[in-house]
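Lab notebook, bench 4. The sequencing result for the construct came back, and we need a structural model before the next group meeting so we can plan mutations. Quick request posted to the team channel:

Model the 3D structure of this chain.
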Amino acid sequence: MTDAFNMLRNPEAAALARGDLMGMLERARQREARLDAFASTLPKVTEGELASLGQSDSTCPICLTPLLALLAEEETALAMDSPAHPVEELGITRLAQTCGHIFCRKDIRGWLYQGNTTCPTCRRPFITLAPEDTGTGVDADAAGQAALFDDLITAALATPPQFDEYHPIFGSPQGPRRENLEDAAQPAHDQQQRDAHFDYDDDRSAFSGMYS
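Done. Here's the predicted structure in token form:
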């Protein structure tokens, strides 16, 4: 919170933070694009290919679901108007360009988008990312929070707050404004003048007989 207030009071720091934020989001978008490009190259494995590879009785190493059951699920889902899962996550695939291990498409895509670049079975690398792309990246929630933070910074730069209008958070309480004190004292001052004038008239009436 203190950093946020400092940025609000320092437009240059806010602009710098915004630049860093935009750079982070751009790197995340580039990373997602590279992962999407790799995921789109993963082949779909058919039942005949499973048989030729001798994997008809195998299971997915990640979810342990039989591969033939995953193929049957894909066939059923494609026959429906609205499959329960995205089409690109249905069926099974194979890391054909490297180790050749077979997985269900849903789990290997999840493994990939979590920032993993090696085969879950043998740990052989199957994709090469830039150094800044390693790790878990930026998920949708974090990106949304970053966009909200950017909106706050933009608004702060457009209309910087007037901090002299607020009471201090720490230290002694701020007293009432000077103009408020003067406004409050004015009626009492007027009453004192009226009382003094009344007393003066009384004093004069006491001597009126001496000069008649």
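Helices lie at 2-9, 11-40, 47-53, 67-79, 105-113, 140-158, 178-206.
Will bring this to the meeting.
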